[in-house]
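#struct-queue
[09:14] JT: dropping the first one here, sequence first, then the structure tokens:
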Amino acid sequence: MNAGKGLIVPVCLLGIWEIAANVSGSLSDNVVPPSTVLRALWGMFSSGILLDKTAQTLASAGMGLVYGAVLGLAGGLVLGLSPRVARLLDAPIELLRPMPSVALIPLAMMAFGFGIHMESAVVGFATFWPILILVQGAVASVDRRLIEVADVLQLGYMARVLKIVLPSVAPRLIVALRLAIGIALVVAVTVEIVANPYGLGYGLVTAQVALKPAEMFGYLLWVGVLGWALNLILVKTQRRLMAGLGLSSPQEGLPS
């Protein structure tokens, strides 16, 4: 229901755009009405081109997200549980974290060449940092009484993480994953626009060079719909998981 309400404003804006385009009749050839964009989008979908490029982008974004999530989760757990290690690595982290992920494209191209591995490496770098920081903060904020219970029970490191820490920070981990999914998609499309001749980003550039504005806007619209759908899926998964664990969904200022 909330997802349907969220579509009201975009649909109204598209309707205003369509009416203005048909009434005025003075739009540039490079600015097409939404009805033309939707026809072009359907044509790309019917031909299979859109699905093929979507699969390429999602494969790269998904692989990079797995890299970033696994390394970010592991690093965040270590930093959150060990203030001494966090202080030791604070300077290197703050030096590397502000680095734009797209600045690593030349290095990634030298290491992997064109293709999914180059793109996923850049996506992995981009998604690693928000997950690392959010997981570190979540772990560091775990109730100290729970840690004391783990000490009394003489739990080992892995038992402490699995039985005490992860259940306590699960809601915030899902928030971190929601943020990372959006970043992964944005960075993947950006890499394809800049350097990698694959996926939705490359299709967008190709349409622009070929002077096909309807297809270009179609790719833009599809990327937005794709991001919205991925977020919606994760929100539904989050609510079911939290209900299964008997926890309330986190309200971190993120729209659902």
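[09:21] JT: and here's the second one, same format:
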Amino acid sequence: MLAGAILLTGCEQDRIKAICEAHPQLCAELHTDGWCRFERSNLIRARYQQHSEPSDAARYALMTELVTYRDCLDPLMDIEYTDRQERKNDKVETIVRLQEELTRLEQQGRHSDYPYLQLWYWQRHGDRQARSRFLAQAERPEMQQPDLQKALASLLVTRDKPAAEQALHRALGLYHKGQSIDNGIIADLINLYIGEKRYEDAWLWTQVLGAFSSQAEIDPARLDAYVRVDEHRQQEMRQQADNIVRRLKNGTYIQR
């Protein structure tokens, strides 16, 4: 396994080296020491993708990698480089250039109808026009992604709880067999049910959540005081939860 990991790392370094040799502008002005090497490689690949096949999706991926790389470098500014102060200066200059590149990309994609970009402007900049455009395309095929449906539900929950519930169920129904399910979707569904005092539904989905997470995001014991059912009904609900878990794992969960 170790030999395989070393081989993969070597291949990855070769790919990045090939990109930099063919397109030096994509690797220019990045820091050169060993810090944040993985994030730097991801950024170079994202730059290459946007360079070779420009699109809103590639722009969003590049913006995401810029932020990830910047956030990796930023804590290093607190490190005292007693022997080589130029290392710190190198990173400071890199962060400044990263922010300039990010600002330029944000300006270019400001009016895009790509839902991930619309979420970006709303969540990071509070752009209400982007929020409205995101909500307006709720039924478009591009929106049929679990994370987008989860985000949609978070925007709908205060004004249209049935639509928010539908979006969360749709998000779960979009997973395929073998995919890792975002437990936050199930937790959001439980919180919605608790808010509406639908305690049996909340109890049921707490059992489902327990099958996917060893961490107690929501303690089922807290719901027992609100779920007044006999042992037979409780057993039925457990069987129902098991059925939901099986369908989620098999990628056959039916959207409501």
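[09:30] RK: nice, looked through the second one.
[09:31] RK: Residues 85-108 form the longest helix (24 residues).
[09:31] JT: good to know. Residues 19-108 form one domain.
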